[in-house]
Amino acid sequence: MITGKNYIGNQLSANGSKTFKTFNPVSNTENEQVYSEASVEEIHEAVALASQAFAEFRSISGERKAAFLNAIADEILALDTELIQTYCSETGLPEGRAMGERGRTVFQLRTFADLVAEGDWVEATIDTAIPDRTPMPKPDVRKLLIPLGPVVVFGASNFPLAYSTAGGDTAAALAAGCPVIVKSHPMHAGTGELVASAIVKAAEKTGMPNGVFSNLNSSGIEVGVELVKHPGVKAVGFTGSIRGGRALLDLAAQREEPIPVFAEMGSINPVVILPEAIQNRGEALAKTYAGSITLGTGQFCTNPGLILGIKSDELTEFTQNLGKDILEIQPSVMLHPNIVGAYEANKSKALSQSDVTIVADYESDVQSNYARQVITTVEGKTFLENPTLHQEVFGPFSLVVQCEDATQLETIIKGLEGQLTGTLIAENSEANEYQDVIAALQNRVGRLIYNGVPTGVEVCPSMVHGGPYPASTDSRFTAVGVSSIKRWARPFSYQDWPNDLLPSELKNENPLNITRTLNGALSKETI
Amino acid sequence: MITGKNYIGNQLSANGSKTFKTFNPVSNTENEQVYSEASVEEIHEAVALASQAFAEFRSISGERKAAFLNAIADEILALDTELIQTYCSETGLPEGRAMGERGRTVFQLRTFADLVAEGDWVEATIDTAIPDRTPMPKPDVRKLLIPLGPVVVFGASNFPLAYSTAGGDTAAALAAGCPVIVKSHPMHAGTGELVASAIVKAAEKTGMPNGVFSNLNSSGIEVGVELVKHPGVKAVGFTGSIRGGRALLDLAAQREEPIPVFAEMGSINPVVILPEAIQNRGEALAKTYAGSITLGTGQFCTNPGLILGIKSDELTEFTQNLGKDILEIQPSVMLHPNIVGAYEANKSKALSQSDVTIVADYESDVQSNYARQVITTVEGKTFLENPTLHQEVFGPFSLVVQCEDATQLETIIKGLEGQLTGTLIAENSEANEYQDVIAALQNRVGRLIYNGVPTGVEVCPSMVHGGPYPASTDSRFTAVGVSSIKRWARPFSYQDWPNDLLPSELKNENPLNITRTLNGALSKETI
């Protein structure tokens, strides 16, 4: 049952005076439930509890953390239709999507549970002593990853489950041993509270310290700002706009103790279509991309907002087909009137730039909060000269750039800001000729896709969901996959430490039977 | 032969109008050689060359990078006495130290050469496709670490070789595939130029692209500021003061494209001595610590500047012994008059604080630029209330804090800023009673040492030389050991990429025979 209150640790709390409601974009009405924004006192209490909880939580076993994470997954599933209905009522997204995203969220939690139960993730590294080394004895040094401390997670508007309350950032932080304080996304505060209740229930059932998790409601920026500035907070995870992520990064950098911010932000996900491919498969590609651009009403961070090709009749034909195909797709609802407003504003800005040709613009009437898809095209020169055209238009929008030649294509790619993904559409026979283009693209993105679409982010150890700024604030980390735990952990060394005082991961007996780097070689051996 | 010029890529260059000299603190005179500070044009040219070089350097094989790194080591050794003499003349450090540091530098270069020749460091991770998975086929995704781009390295005053021109930051960055631009430390510009000449020679001999390395002279902050703000620079490595490191961190954070700064900065390296240990071994400990505090004239970042004990007759006796022992050590020369000046100023500031007792102060006359060692002591309460006493006094200085009890000891540790190291001096029988103290200490440091001294940083895979801010600007990385390469690399994914276009590390055949994570398990198998 949704109460509209915050979770300050395991306690429901609503001491603040500010309230707000969520919005159903399908019915175009506010939802009934009133949410209480966290007060400054509640924020401070949540951080104080998290700091206290950290003292215990950071050294509990991987097995117990796994039980906690699996219990969260179980409790989320137990929320059943209430969760799915709330999700749909706060996002306009269909039930199938809600269930798919719930599946992904549960899968992520269980994947991290497996990771910490197994224990290899701490990268245990042991160099044993050489007491008779000259001129100096070699000490015994042993290293492992340990958690940073309380982490603040900002939920994403477009993924109320997988990138929000119990999403990837939270799952990874809890797995690392960091307490989490979620700044709940105001657009889906109900979904957030339900998931928070599942986490709190799981924490209680598995005996986690009070404060290991808190969920704070907020309608504006104040709660987030207060959290990021709080000395008790040691790291920040964010998924959202460049403006939002950068603001948090700047706040964190200005602290007396700067802290890491991993923000996964905007991206236009360039797609490079090579000549032979467009010649052979232009028609099919247009269909595929019309689908990818409008998938989830274009509200994916990996949405293909930029298509780069080399001028040819086939590219012209592809562009026209893309326009035709996209107009055949029924418009769908966006997450919130504010998202629609931003889409319309950004689209208008893009369309009003000089020398932009509109290929397709869904002009028929649509229901409130539905997005009209648009395809535009420009010459390479125009794109190069106008940075406004490089900006993301969050929604079902894409721009086809007609480059003069491969050199201009490469120049354009080199001038792009950092991106989550880059896609190469090519025949195998021609890809080799474009090595410079591919190298340039690699240097601007976190993931390269061959003959596919960028939408769809597989949750697996080899996935990188991140990339050079502004795709993320730190390209050395990923937001998806088990490696994302490294955002919230730091290496730590023990020198000549007595075996019985060492953590299990580093003890001579290797009681957890984990794989360690022992004197330079991977091994499960005892010492 | 030292020319006083900058290396802009492989070319010697001296277009600027600003010049400076280095200083011999032993003879208390300027050295003769005049150095030309890099001009803005030279800075921009170095970055442009580095960016060009990156396009080639980032994809050369590990084997070729290894040859380059080993050639640097060879060329440094070939500099022979000229290097050692220049080093001594610019630092006042003895020949033995110069040779030891050269050995360490060469060892680091060869260690990174081995690392990249072997190739496992890229953390290759492969998840193969499951085309018939429902509801969606699983793509083939493969990940490896790739270099960030040109890195600027700021040399350290106190380690002209191991943490400067071809030191750990440079070796790690080159190993990762990042071109390096060194902002040479003005106090040892000659040593820097010699080492730079070795790197350039090695680059030419092994066919590295021009611009893979540049060495820029500077006497003030301008060159460094210009470099860190330059859009072509993608990361920064720094070893030095908190003020300097923080200024660079702030500059990097304010860029349009923020970039990672790994700065290893100040630390007072708390040493906790437990009661039984001081009772049993107080006298010997005093001798050991008098040596550690004055080692290298106290000019180590791991110098023990803070000793924490619980009030007792034995602690009083230890403190007196420490004072007595340290006065028996002959004062030694510091690196530079500016370092002496800072030491004297910081020492005076510490000594002038209320309720600080001077235990030992070397009052006899000393030669110019020699440092007079000092031991002070305060009550726990005084230390808790006065943050000035928490500040580093870079030099042969230490403060013994007499805590009321274990609770106050823990409170003091919890209130410390981040540190590179923490040391526990204990009998095995008593350590277990102080688990809370140990946990608190672990939370503030990057490395814990048992019954040893913090000075001496073993170069090995399990070493962490870093720690919570301000010990470093990002506790998730280390400055020493092969893992330090991770500061300069980012994960990158290929999705459904054709085998013949993949880098060797990810090809089906595993031609480099590296260990990879294949569908979740470590393996050298082919696919």
From TrEMBL, chains A, B:
Location of the Aldehyde dehydrogenase domain: 17-458
Record carries keyword Oxidoreductase: yes
InterPro entries: Ald_DH/histidinol_DH, Ald_DH_C, Ald_DH_N, Aldehyde_DH_dom, Aldehyde_DH_Superfamily, ALDH_KGSADH
Keyword Nucleus: no
Keyword line: Oxidoreductase
PANTHER family: ALDEHYDE DEHYDROGENASE-RELATED (PTHR43353:SF3), SUCCINATE-SEMIALDEHYDE DEHYDROGENASE, MITOCHONDRIAL (PTHR43353)
Name of the protein in its database record: Aldehyde dehydrogenase (NADP(+))
